Structures are given as C-alpha cells and as structure tokens.
Amino acid sequence: MTAIREFFRKYGWSYLFILPSMTTFFVFVFFPVVWSFVISFQKYSIARGGMWMDPFYANYIQAFTMLQGIFVTAIRNTVVYTLFTVTTNIFVGLILASLIQPLSHRLRTFFRAAYYLPAVTSAIIVGMTWAYIFNGQWGFANYLLRLVGLAPLRWLSDPDIALVSVTLSAMLTIPATAVVLYSAAMGGIPTEFYEAAELDGATGIRKWWHITVPLIKSTTLYLVVLYTIASFEVFERIYIMVPSGVGNSTQTIVTQIYNNGFKDFNFGVASAQAFVLFLIIASIAVFQFRFLRSDVEY
Amino acid sequence: MKRFIVLFALVVAFALLVACAAPTPEPTKPPAPAPTTAPAQPTAAPAQPTKAPEATKPPAPTTAPAATVAPTQPPAPARTAKGGIRKSTSGYKGTLNLWVLGYTPGNAFANPFDNAVSQFMVDNPDIKVDITGYPPNDEGFAKLTAALQSGQGIDLLRMASDRLPQYVAEDLVEAIDPYLTADDKADILSNVLDVTRLKDGKAWSWPLWVVPMGIYVNKDVFAEAKVDLPPQNWTWEQFVDVAKKTTFKRANGEQVYGFSGYIDPGVVNTWGLWMNEDPSVRPVNKDGKFGFNHAAAYKGLQRFADLALVHKVTPPDFGSQKDADVKGGFTNKQYAMIVDATGPAAQFVAAKVNFEIYPHPTVNGNKLTVGAVGLIGVAKMKDNVKRQAAMDLGRYLTSSEVQADVPPGSNVPTGFYLAPGARKSVKIVAPLDKFIPMLPDMWVTPLMVNWAPLTRLIHPEYQNIIFGKIKPEDSMKKIAPEADKLISGK
To answer: Looking at residues A131-159, what average pLDDT do you find?
Structure first.
C-alpha cells in the first residue's frame, strides 16, 4: 500500500497529461464499443432502452438470415472488394514509391506531395466523380469505349458489372498513404546494402527485389492491415456511386449495418453485424501479423 | 525554409496547371443538377407496428379552380396581422421549433414555410418560430427521430405519412383530437384524416396535403420529336407508343429517352405503372398476404420492365438512377416523360420547363396512381400552453388561410401548397390541379409493421427484373414467404 502511495506521489502528476486523451477514448470509443456489444443481444430503442433477446443470440441469427440472407452476400462482396483493392493499392504504392526514390530530394518531395493530394480530397467528391465517369448515358468511360469502337457498358446498373466498377474506381485511385510510407521506408534503408550489392554485380531490379522489398516488409505489413481494415469498412464510395443499389450486387457489410441501424432502426441486428465485422477484421489482422511480421533490423 | 518555399511554389504551379487544363471531352452534355430538390414522394417507413396493413381508400378530390401561375410576380408586401385562425389563443410566449422535410433555405419547400411562418409570427408577436430543415433521406430521418426521442429542439414536424407509425408507436407525437374544432372536422377530408388514425382511434397529425404520382411530359421534347401530345385518358399502348417516338438521337449525337423514373427502396414512384395491371396487385392484399406473387403481378412487372428490355425507351442506368439525374434529365430535355410526385411541379415551373402533367395510363381499363399523405405532427410535450400553441400553428399550416397568405408569387410558384390540400376549402393552382382527377384512383402506401424491410426485400428483386436478370415469377415467388412474415409483423 505504501509502495502504491509512493508511486502515485512520485508519478501521479504525469497521468494528468494523458487524462484528456484517455477520457476522450473511453467516452467516444471504448464505451460505445462495449455498449454496442451489449445492444447486439437486445431489442433496442432509443426511447425505451433495451430488452434482452430470447435466445440471447437471436440478433446474430437474424443478421445472417433476414432479407434472403443478404448479409452473407454483403460479406462476399466485401471480401472481393478487399482482395482486389488491397492487392492493387499495395502494388501500385510500392511501384510508385520505387520510381520516385532515385529522383532528387526536391523532385521526390514534389511527387510525394502530388500523390498525396487525392488523399485530402473528400471521399464524397471522389465518389461523385467516379459516378459521373461511369454514368451509362454520358459517362467518360463509355465515351472511351465508343472511341475504340466498343459497345457502351452499364457500369453502375448491371448487377454483373457494378461491383467491378466500384472496385475499379478504388483500384484506380492512387494509394497516397502507401506511396508516402513506402517512400519514407525506402529512404531509411542504409545505402551500404546497395553498394555491397553493386560490388557483387547486382542490377537495379535485383537490388530492388532482394534488398528493398524485404527491408520494407514491416511497412508492407502495416499497409496491408491498414488497407484491409479500410476496405472492409467501405461505405461512402458505395453510398455515393450507387445509392439505390444494383440488385444486391453492391451491398457490403457496412451498408447492411447502416440499413439496419438507420433505415429500420433495428439497432440490435446492426450491432450484431458490426460485431461480426469486428471479428472478421481482427481475425484477418492476426493472420496477417503472423505471416507477414518481419524480424529484419538494420 | 528555402525548401518549403520551393515546395510551396511547386504545389501552386501544379494547382495552376490542373486548373488551367483543358476540360475533359464528353460525348454528350450531362444533365445539370436538378433544381434544388426535396421530393415529396412517400418514403419507406421505419418498422414499428400500429395498424393493420391495409391500403387506405383514396381521398375525395378537392375543388381546385385553376389559377394562373405568375412566376415573375414580385414578393408580397410587408405583412400585417390578419387574425382568425392565425392568432393563437394559447397565450404562449416563447419559441416553437418546426422541422420541415426537404427544407433548405431558398428552395421550393422552404419558401412556402418561411412565408407562412412569418405571417404567423406577425399575428403572434410573442411567439417565435424557428425552422429546421431535414433532408428526405436516411440521415434526415435519423436526425429527426433522434430529436423526437430526445424531446429537445422540436415541437412540430412536417413528414410523410409512412413515417407516422413509428412515432405513434413510440409515443413521440401528440394526438390532435382534443384540438380539432367542428370547423376542422367539417373541412378536413375524412378519409385523409383516417390515414392518421393509428392507435386508439385517435388522429395523430394534421393532414397537410395528398401526394399522388403523375407522369410529367416535357412538351418541348414532344415538339422536337414532332409527336402530338396524347390524350389525358391515355392507355398503356399509347404511352409506349409516344415513349418510343420520343426516344431519338439529336443531330449533335445526344440521345433523348422517352421515359425515366426514380427507383429506390425508399420510394414507390414507379409502382403505379405496373400495379395498375389488376386491383389484386398490391404489396399487401386484403387477406393480409403478400400480393405480388400471382400471375397478374408478374404480367404487370414484365410489362413495365419491357420499357427497358424490349422497347428500349429508358436511359441505360434506368433502375439505379439517382433522383437528381431523373429530374435533371427531364429539366434538360433529355427525357420526354418521367413519373414523379407533386413536389417537382413547382420546381419545374420555377425552372421554366414547358411541361404537362398526365395521370398514369390505363391498363385493362384500370386507373391507378400511388402516393402518400403529407402531415404536420406535434411532438410530445408536457407544457399544455405550448402544446396549444403548437396545435394552433399546425392548424394554420394546414388551412386554406395559409394559401391565401402565401399566394403564387416570385419564390412560391404554386403558392403554399405543393400538392392537393387535405381540406375541402384549400384551392390549389395550376399545374397542381392536374393531380386532382387522380385522387379518386390513388392507392396510399400502407401504414404497417415492417414496411421499410418489406420494401428493402422487394427492391433488389424489382431492380433485377428491370435489368432483365430474373423473371418476375421466379423473383416474387422466392421472396413471398419472407414477405408474408414481414407483413404479419414477425
């Protein structure tokens, strides 16, 4: 007891510094997360509060079975979207960062800034722009198809194509964060490695593949986790590009959570689906950490 | 520091280059944004039980002598107190918070209410009315519901009838029966008032107007295509015929389409065009069962889908088009006809669109339109004096006096009323009077448990039928068991 008192007498003041951020975290993050988990077992109304479901997991059953099992379709759509966007974003980010790395410091800084510009553009604006590009009647994508003599497509109104169009829009957007982080990581690799490789006769591509790529593996892990989480939470792009849906082909996990929570006010099922999303993301993140973690130090 | 200056200069140069770049070539002119929109169409109701799922009998038509619209008329002079029902007898001193669907300062839904409220405040100097707008979408309704549930900052609300069941079930709005005078009872169309009787036989809102869907016909496009306007009592065959004839390519390569409409889980704008196949084609039949899974419904759905699949008179994205694109395309003469509610009429007048309003074409002699009722509700409150004042404002905002106080003028092309009023005494003006003959054939969206999930169940199937991905029979049979469960409230 004396030791605890002594600890707080000596260090207690320092906790005051983290008090504001911890308060914010508990009030706006921790408490809502715990509360939504509780709600996932309840029939909840803002006015009347919650009533426990019987059986207690009924919302989870309903989450997967209601509306012709649309949540399962939404999970499948989200996984497809994530696979393609994460892979492309990582690859494009790596290539672009590698291309600007040999440039002078000023040019590198310029390109980093230029590539980051889209990241500060509102997701709403980006979504609206892509919606215009893919408009079936007067969109730019069909204009290009007509130029080369191809028939126009119903990019955002054909259930077989709509998810591809939305995914393509994400793939064709420059992954600003990846470019900047990869560029910074490449800048931190000691030049001695490259000099030694050159003495051994290694070419540019070989140096890149055997030195650069392995040594930025920790950055790759971070980006894969970051982009996976962001892709699983895709919402604005879908909501802006195809607000009325295209059959069920563009439904994702978060659009389902949104529909149940804010269209039907079925907070219990929405919370259950949100918790399922949390489990999926956490499982994938653990898997990614296990197989991509790096022991490289330099 | 020098590096930062260089970097800043480069960024500025880059921005200038982007700004000065030549515009991207486009095949045809995209439609300009529609006039500020605030659709009056019925929205999907959130789930909450109150009343048996039953289509409400359409209201009787109101008398409506057509008046000339005068969009260039100057604004009304300074207001003076007029008394009558404008004067609240409550003795309340303070603020009333009025939430208005689709209200954005300066738009078609804002100006009528701004004008009306200013008259009410002149007659009641001790009462200040603050208006809050909320958009006709999910965020707007979530915001409205949260405000009602918190009991803060909201005293009256303008809403569509399909929102009412949830608010009544959760005890968030006041019954108006104690405040209905003999004059009110004699004046309000009884079948419209009945729409609001959801619990204990009480009326839970002031009926404002009735909102049917009509076919908007762009006369300029018809003239350009050298197609005569069809008769008002047109048939489906005549509708398809003119839709085909008005689907053409302009000399500049721009494609014009004969027909379009907004299709979304939250609206039923296009439903009347295939529900008119037979009176049995209703989402909820008289026996309380799903009513889209039988031969007549399949036939109607296929007939409607054939507009896109066979006749090809609709734009490529028909079925998943945005509301603004539909209205914008009509305004910009890219669509000859659209189906929409009464609300856009005032917007099209303001935008100087040369248009005519038609009822839905008949099928097998069946006349039908679909729609909802606009309401003014009073939020639950404990202060009796304030409640009386709110009721007085609700009565005024649904009266014929408000139309007299806010006549057609520069910023209110059709006066206060944007749809046929719910009182016999309300006189509406052209072009809204064209909706009057449709009212006897109007089917009102049922106020029922699980209407929103039901529409979410139907919508993707409806879209897939229009996209030609599934047959109506397969689609509707597939969802029928779950639809029956939703209708029964399970």
So the answer is: 94
Fold designation for B214-340+450-487:
D-Maltodextrin-Binding Protein; domain 2 (3.40.190)
A248 with A35: CB under 8 angstroms? no
Chain A residues within 8 A of B333 when measuring between CB atoms: none
ipTM value greater than 0.90: no
Instruction: Please choose, from the candidates B45, B479, B438, B321, the residue with its C-alpha nearest in 3D space to the C-alpha of residue A156.
Output: B321
pLDDT band for position B138 (50/70/90)?
Answer: low
Residue B177's φ and ψ, nearest 5 degrees, are -50, -45
Read off the DSSP letter of residue B15: H
C-alpha to C-alpha distance for B474 and B455, rounded to whole angstroms: 18
Q: Which residues, numbered 421 to 460 in chain B, qualify as contacts with chain A under a Cβ-Cβ cut-off of 8 Å?
A: 452-453, 456-457, 459-460
Instruction: Report the amino acid identity of residue A162.
Output: A
Alpha-carbon distance A280 to nearest alpha carbon in chain B (angstroms): 25
pLDDT, one tens digit per residue, over A266-288 is: 899 999 999 999 999 999 989 88
| Residue matched to tokens 């009462």 | B127
Q: CATH for B85-210+373-430, among 1.10.10.10, 3.40.190.10, 3.40.50.720, 3.30.70.100? A: 3.40.190.10
pLDDT digits (tens, 9 = 90+) for B172-203: 999 999 999 999 999 998 888 988 998 888 99
Identify the CATH assignment for A70-292 out of 1.10.3720.10, 1.20.1250.20, 3.20.20.80, 3.40.50.300.
Answer: 1.10.3720.10
Residue-range domain boundaries for chain B: 85-210+373-430, 214-340+450-487
What is the count of residue pairs from A and B with beta carbons less than 8 Å apart? Answer: 132
Residue contact A46–B478, C-beta within 8 A: no
DSSP letters spanning A3-38: HHHHHHHHHHHHHHHHHHHHHHHIIIIIHHHHHHHH
A157, A166 contact by CB (below 8 A):
no
Residue A42 in contact with partner chain B when CB distance is under 8 A: no
Contacts of B132 (CB under 8 A, 6+ apart): B97, B98, B99, B100, B103, B153, B154
Nearest-CA distance A219 → chain B (Å): 26
Q: What is the Cβ-side half-sphere exposure of residue B101, based on CA atoms within 13 angstroms?
A: 26
- Tell whether A110 lies on the interface with B, counting CB pairs under 8 A: yes
pLDDT score recorded for residue B31: 44
The count of other CB atoms within 10 Å of the CB of residue A69 is 13
Q: What is the pLDDT of residue B102?
A: 86
Alpha helices in A40-122 (DSSP H): 58-100, 105-116
